[in-house]
Q: What sequence folds into this?
């Protein structure tokens, strides 16, 4: 099972195709670089990390070998006289990356699961809790998709006193630091068809669930990784062809089938597709499901396409977006087709914020894709705006980029010539690498 460590990045690379572009890309490696020192006694630095993916079992958790480095960096943040805030932008805890046959809660409940994560990653939680209790640095948590259903009470259980920035709807949140309404920090999953909360599908099967299909995708992908990335599987995906009726809903379901067909053809597993292998007992789901429960099917070529789990998901995307407070609606076909592109998530920063006439946000920080980058563009007022992705802390980020990433925002001073600086870093073995940087005048 230990071979499983670090293999999630392979799965993620398949879900988010490589798209590592940045504005003003630079690499400055210097053991003396201190990104948490602004050269003054003022506390104004805002540090953002995301996608830590802490697990309850380190034999398959994505962040294991990088834990010591994470602890060291958090201690550096805590000791800094210049850091004002630490923002954790989603996927701090991982409820998704669990091999399909494993009982996530071990017959107990989410509170016990979260406490097991805290115990397995005690050093990280100790320094975070020390920081929270000291109250010199505001520590803020924003939900991601892998901690989508983790409740406010259960976060408070292991991080008492942490500032939680949540939407009224479970699984989402956007944070603007006090005094900086033109900065928006969120995980970025609300714009992804496979990862955004879904409170409309499967309500007859799992009343109250909000788990999107990406949850099941990850459970299958985790099984594939735990098997050592086999090149052969037991079963093959039955062919589905477009419905000859030309019905829009059927065409969309065919696009959805293509994603699942690719998934099951890529993530080879040692079970038939009709075998119940995905043990749930989370978020309203009970029992065990098969791959066929997720895979759209048809009785004859060109005939009606149907699906068991997520029946009608191709028809409720607009409703999901309204529920998830997506300002600018994304067409369903675009959302399905773009669900495997990191660039689609990056583009949403520009579409939802910079080009949205109802938004005056000019700096956006997302996580989610594990692809760290900085991009500059013009907003609807022809003003420079900056998007930054905060990367990840998983052991092996096989997207040919790096892991152990973080972002530092230094707000501008009252000086007329001062600008707000945004910098992206990589941290390893206590050596800091500046990956990219940009600035603007707010």
A:
């Amino acid at each position: 099972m230990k071979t499983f460590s670090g293999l999630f990045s392979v799965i993620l690379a398949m879900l988010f195709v490589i798209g590592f572009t940045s504005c003003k890309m630079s690499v400055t490696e210097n053991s003396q670089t201190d990104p948490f020192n602004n050269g003054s006694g003022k506390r104004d630095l805002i540090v953002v990390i995301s996608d830590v993916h802490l697990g309850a079992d380190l034999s398959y958790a994505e962040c294991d070998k990088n834990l010591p480095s994470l602890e060291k960096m958090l201690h550096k943040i805590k000791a800094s006289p210049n850091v004002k805030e630490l923002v954790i932008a989603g996927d701090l805890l991982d409820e998704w990356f669990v091999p399909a046959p494993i009982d996530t809660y071990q017959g107990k409940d989410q509170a016990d699961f979260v406490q097991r994560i805290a115990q397995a990653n005690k050093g990280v939680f100790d320094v975070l809790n020390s920081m929270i209790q000291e109250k010199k640095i505001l520590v803020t948590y924003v939900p991601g998709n892998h901690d989508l259903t983790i409740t406010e009470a259960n976060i408070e259980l292991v991080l008492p006193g942490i500032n939680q920035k949540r939407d009224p709807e479970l699984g989402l949140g956007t944070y603007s630091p006090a005094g900086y309404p033109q900065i928006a920090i969120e995980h970025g999953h609300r714009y992804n068809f496979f990862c955004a909360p879904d409170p409309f599908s499967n309500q007859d099967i799992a009343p109250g669930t909000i788990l999107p299909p990406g949850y099941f995708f990850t459970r299958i992908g985790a099984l594939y990784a735990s098997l050592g990335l086999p090149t052969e599987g037991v079963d093959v995906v039955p062919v589905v062809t477009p419905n000859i009726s030309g019905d829009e809903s059927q065409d969309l379901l065919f696009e959805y089938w293509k994603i699942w067909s690719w998934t099951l053809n890529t993530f080879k597993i040692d079970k038939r597709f009709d075998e119940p292998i995905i043990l749930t007992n989370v978020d309203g789901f009970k029992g065990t499901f098969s791959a066929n429960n997720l895979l759209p099917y048809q009785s004859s070529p060109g005939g009606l396409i149907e699906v068991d789990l997520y029946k009608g998901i191709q028809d409720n995307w607009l409703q999901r977006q309204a529920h998830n407070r997506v300002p600018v609606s994304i067409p369903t076909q675009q959302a399905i087709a773009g669900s495997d592109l990191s660039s689609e998530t990056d583009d949403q920063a520009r579409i939802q914020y910079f080009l949205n006439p109802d938004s005056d946000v000019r700096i956006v920080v997302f996580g989610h894709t594990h692809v760290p980058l900085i991009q500059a563009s013009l907003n609807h007022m022809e003003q420079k705006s900056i998007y930054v992705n905060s990367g990840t802390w998983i052991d092996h980020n096989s997207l040919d980029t790096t892991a152990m990433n973080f972002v530092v925002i230094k707000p501008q001073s009252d000086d007329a010539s001062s600008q707000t600086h945004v910098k992206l870093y990589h941290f390893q073995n206590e050596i800091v690498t500046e990956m990219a940087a940009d600035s603007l005048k707010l």
